[in-house]
Every structure is written in structure tokens, then in C-alpha cells.
Design goal:
Strand 4 and strand 5 form a beta hairpin. By secondary structure, the protein is an alpha+beta fold. It starts with 9 loop residues before the first helix and ends in a 9-residue tail after the last strand. Helix content is about 30%, strand content about 25%.
Length: about 550
């Protein structure tokens, strides 16, 4: 209440065109949405508080006044008319938000704002949607669900014209079909948990409103694939908030508790997560209205949930394997992936893995970096978080993995058992190395003993000896080289020990830096095991052993 309304100036709008960065405009744009959400929720909670109502109406008016509801990064033209006819993720979300706020507030909203919201949503969403065809309408990733789902939801909430509503819903239904085509039969979201929350969340918001409007006649939740997608969340958690964050996904993921409870009420096989894992209201840096509201109205206060149980998951379409185990009241987990290097929000990461134990990630995935023009352009794989140089995979004769659909893992074997989880991959096609004939990687996650243990067996075949061969392991912990009873080890924070053959390889420990999704410089470390004399046939084995984890702090 005491802060001035932030302004979306021309200078901010042109920052992306001038230097390719998004955060400057985004911070102000999303703060305006946070103010709208906050003042609206406060007037719903305290309807007699006039100061909240005035602040809410000012924000509604200001957002209706915005030149465009799109982000500059999603606009490819300098024509004002064409910009006004463009629909992106955030313009669609804004239209959904305003439409729902209008319904919820009812007669408490001044008539001028009621008509203004209807006019702006129609002009910015409904009219261009019915006049044009947008590329995202047939996308098989989050854009189709968020854009079409938001427009369909706004139409369900706002339109009295049945013919126009029908026309919009027919288009949005087609986009939902395309969105579901982006999932394999295993229900895995290749974009990661964050984009599952986002894309699938908006699919659910739309499907729920549609089901209610049609009295259950149209029920997307009855689709078998939708049920499997709904179960993805519980399969990719390693422990607490730590997730298997392959692709552009964050290392930790809070839950949308409303979405989780809604899905658990619909599907018997959905685990109800711990209440403590829910995302706080201020966590969403994009300040999205739809999940913020539903985290309140869909949350079941009687459901306190439970911690993640021991489980093994093999997702054959994604080629992900995840295992959670409990030893002496501590949780441990392992995750690895195959797949291909043309996935949505792709990283060149075939054969990459993550190790978790007792509240900490030891072998890490860096997750998503700061979104810039170059991040989604030709320079994408120069970013450590995207290229294979920032993943726990080999560097073969100086070569990193290549992007593209032809870089594809072949699963040779995958086993989930009571004693061991195993994944064996042929990763030859991931590298464009003339000398390389074959490269296979085998993970063995042994669950017996005092604590679980991971073994990795890499096998290389060359037509002639390579000039160099390096195994890279990525961690957020500063590594330490040591010798214990004649055995060469690398220690990570006193919690994990990496065993290697000192007669075969030299260990090199390096510090690196990258900018994370919020533009913060973050350190990461590589443990590089250099083969001393690589020959035609090379076998390299590594063993990862958990040490005593008492007193180890989370990182």
C-alpha cells in the first residue's frame, strides 16, 4: 500500500530489443500482477476495507491501460498494430485473471471496470484468437496448454454469446489435444517439474471449468493419459523439495498445494504430499493469478499428506529412472536419463545423473539459467547449464555432446528391483567424434547395506586412440582430493566420496560460475577424471559412496 505503482516505461519495454535481457521489464510487469492479486484477494477476504478496494481498482485500470499484455521477448515486430494482435503466455494469463476476478467480485466491481475488462479481454484475446492462427495452437508443450487454456477459461467465465463461446472452445479443445500429444504413455513431462506445474496446471484449470460448465459431459480427467501425467509430480521428487531437475527445471520445486489436492481427490494413485512442501504465496516470481487462487480454494485443510515414500520409477518414453530409498531414517535418491537432445527446453545431457542423500544434492543438475535472447538462440549450448560441459557426462577427444534429434540414447537394459536399480545406455550418437565407434554407460544403484551406493561403468571403443578422454562430475560442493589407505578419492562436503583408479586417471578439480534463472551468479564445480593413456578399448569405473552425513548442511 505504501509503495508507488511501478510503471512499464518505453525504456523498459525496449531493453530486450537493445540487449536481449528479460529481467528488467519482467520484474516490473510481474510486480504489477502481484499487486493486482494481493489487493483482489484482500478485498475478497475483507470486503468492507475501502482502501484495499481502491488499490485493487487502480491496478485493474492500470493493467487494462498497458500497451500490450505480452512480454517483449515474445514479440517479433515493431508494428504497434501487430503487437496488439499478438497473444503470448502472459497476455493469455492476464485475460484469464481479469475474467475470473470480474466473476468473483460480482457487484462489488464498478460498472465501468466491468465493461472495461470485457472490452479489453475481447480486444486482446478473443478477437485475434478467432481471426488468426497462432503457432502455439499446435505446440506439444506448455504454450498450447497455457495460451489456449487461458483463453478458453476466460471465455467460459466472461462470454454470454453462446456461438462465440462455442467457436473459442472448439479451437482451445484442439490445442489441448496437441498438448497431450507432447507426452509419452508414461506421462513424463520432458520440460521438468516446473513446466509440469505450469503447463499441466493450466490444462487442469481449464478442464475443471469446462467440466463444471458442461455438468460433467466433457471430462478431460477421464482420459487415461491425463491420469498418468497427473502422477508425474510424485515420480520426480528425490526428497523434500529436491527434484530430478533435468531440462530447464529448478533444483528445488515447491508444490502447488491446490493442484496437488485437486488431483489427489480425482485419482486414487496420486500421493498427497506434505503440507510443508507447498509454495508460499510470494514464491511465484511471475505472480500468476490462477494458481494463487486455487492454492487457496482447492486446498483441503484436512489433508496433511505424507513424506515421499520409497519408490522406483522407470519412465520408458522419457528414458528416466528414479529411485528413492530410506536407510536409518535418512532418505537417499538417484536419478538418471537417456532421451534425446532435441527435447523441449533441451539440455545436451544424455547419460547425466543426480545423487541425493540426507537432505542434500551431491551430484547435481545446474537447472535453468537466466532466460535471454541468446539463451534461446544460437548460443544456447555455450551456457554451462545447457551444454554437456555442465553435466555429468564424458568429454570425448575434446568433444561435448551435440544437440539435435539424431543425438539419441538407446536403452540396452533397465531394471527396477528390491536390491538394485540398473540402467544401461548406448550413447554413441550423442557425440560427433570420428574416432568413436561405441560408447555405453551403465548405472548400478545398489540399495542394500548401511547406505546405498552408485557405480558407473563406462565403456568406449575407438578406431584409434583418442588424444584425450575425461569423465566429468558436476557438483555444487567444493571437492577435495585425498588419499586414504592408498586409495584415491574425491570428497564432496564430507558427505559423498568418489572412488576412482589413480593408476588410470588424474583428478582435476575446477570452479566454474553461471547465471541462474533469476540472474544470480552461482558457483559450481567439476570433478574431471582424465584418462592418462586412452587406448582403443577403454573401461572407466567410478563408485559413489555416501559417508557419514551427520551434521551435513543442505546445499
Amino acid at each position: 500500500m505504501n509503495q508507488p505503482m511501478p510503471l512499464l516505461t518505453y525504456d523498459l519495454f525496449t531493453v530486450y530489443a537493445r540487449q536481449g535481457t528479460r529481467l528488467e521489464y519482467g520484474r516490473v510487469y510481474f510486480e504489477r500482477r502481484r499487486r493486482l492479486n494481493t489487493f483482489t484477494l484482500l478485498t475478497l477476504l475483507e470486503p468492507d476495507a475501502g482502501t484495499y478496494r481502491q488499490a485493487r481498482d487502480e491496478m485493474l485500470w492500470a493493467i487494462c491501460d498497458e500497451f500490450t499484455w505480452c512480454l517483449p521477448a515474445h514479440l517479433g515486430t515493431e508494428s504497434a498494430a501487430e503487437i496488439r494482435g499478438t497473444i503470448d503466455l502472459f497476455s493469455a494469463e492476464t485475460g484469464f485473471a481479469l475474467s475470473e476476478i470480474r466473476v468473483l467480485l460480482g457487484g462489488d466491481l464498478p460498472p465501468l471496470l466491468v465493461s472495461r475488462i470485457h472490452e479489453e479481454v475481447s480486444r486482446r484475446l478473443f478477437d485475434p484468437y478467432l481471426r488468426h492462427t497462432f503457432g502455439w495452437e499446435t505446440a506439444t508443450h506448455n504454450w498450447s496448454a497455457v495460451c489456449a487454456g487461458s483463453i478458453g477459461a476466460a471465455a467460459l467465465l466472461l462470454l454470454d454469446d453462446r456461438d462465440r463461446l462455442k467457436e473459442i472452445l472448439l479451437k482451445s479443445q484442439q490445442s489441448m489435444d496437441y498438448y497431450l500429444q507432447g507426452f509419452g504413455s508414461d506421462g513424463a513431462c520432458l520440460e521438468g517439474l516446473g513446466y509440469w506445474n505450469y503447463g499441466f496446471g493450466y490444462f487442469v484449470y481449464y478442464a475443471d471449468l469446462l467440466k463444471q460448465r458442461r455438468n460433467g459431459e466433457i471430462d478431460w480427467f477421464g482420459e487415461e493419459k491425463v491420469g498418468r501425467i497427473a502422477a508425474f509430480q510424485q515420480s520426480c521428487y528425490l526428497g523434500g523439495k529436491h527434484v530430478a531437475n533435468f531440462s530447464d527445471s529448478s533444483p528445488e520445486g515447491s508444490l502447488h498445494i491446490g493442484l496437488s489436492h485437486r488431483l489427489a481427490a480425482r485419482y486414487e494413485d496420486i500421493d498427497v504430499p506434505l503440507e510443508q512442501l507447498r509454495a508460499p504465496y510470494v514464491e511465484d516470481h511471475c505472480s500468476r493469478w490462477a494458481p494463487a487462487l486455487r492454492n487457496w480454494i482447492w486446498r483441503d485443510p484436512g489433508q496433511q499428506g505424507q513424506d515421499w515414500a520409497e519408490a522406483d520409477y522407470y519412465l520408458p518414453d522419457a528414458q528416466w529412472i528414479i529411485s528413492r530409498v530410506q536407510h536409518e531414517d535418512r532418505g537417499y535418491a538417484f536419478a538418471a536419463k537417456g532421451g534425446h537432445n532435441a527435447e523441449p527446453h533441451n539440455h545436451n545431457d544424455l547419460g547425466h545423473f543426480i545423487l541425493y542423500g540426507a537432505g542434500a544434492i551431491w551430484c547435481a543438475d545446474l537447472g535453468c539459467g537466466e532466460y535471454t535472447a541468446d539463451y534461446f538462440g544460437e548460443g544456447r549450448y555455450g551456457y554451462d547449464c545447457n551444454g554437456s560441459q555442465g553435466h555429468s557426462v564424458p568429454i570425448i577427444d575434446g568433444h561435448y555432446q551435440e544437440a539435435g534429434g539424431s543425438s539419441r540414447a538407446v536403452v540396452l537394459d533397465a531394471v527396477t528391483g528390491e536390491k538394485q536399480v540398473m540402467l544401461k545406455l548406448d550413447l554413441t550418437s550423442a557425440y560427433r567424434v570420428p574416432l568413436l565407434r561405441k560408447y555405453t554407460r551403465e548405472f548400478q544403484w545398489n540399495k542394500q547395506g548401511a547406505r546405498p551406493e552408485l557405480r558407473i561403468k563406462d565403456r568406449f571403443e575407438f578406431s584409434e586412440p583418442p588424444g584425450c578422454l575425461t569423465e566429468r562430475i558436476v557438483t555444487r560442493w567444493r571437492p577435495e582430493r585425498c588419499l586414504v589407505d592408498g586409495v584415491n578419492l574425491v570428497k564432496l562436503g564430507g558427505g559423498l566420496v568418489i572412488h576412482y583408479d589413480g593408476a588410470q586417471v588424474d583428478a582435476d578439480l575446477q570452479e566454474h560460475w553461471f547465471r541462474d534463472h533469476h540472474g544470480v551468479n552461482v558457483a559450481w564445480y567439476s570433478v574431471d577424471l582424465h584418462m592418462k593413456q586412452p587406448g582403443l578399448d577403454v573401461s572407466m569405473d567410478m563408485r559413489f559412496e555416501y559417508a557419514s552425513l551427520k551434521g551435513v548442511e543442505e546445499k
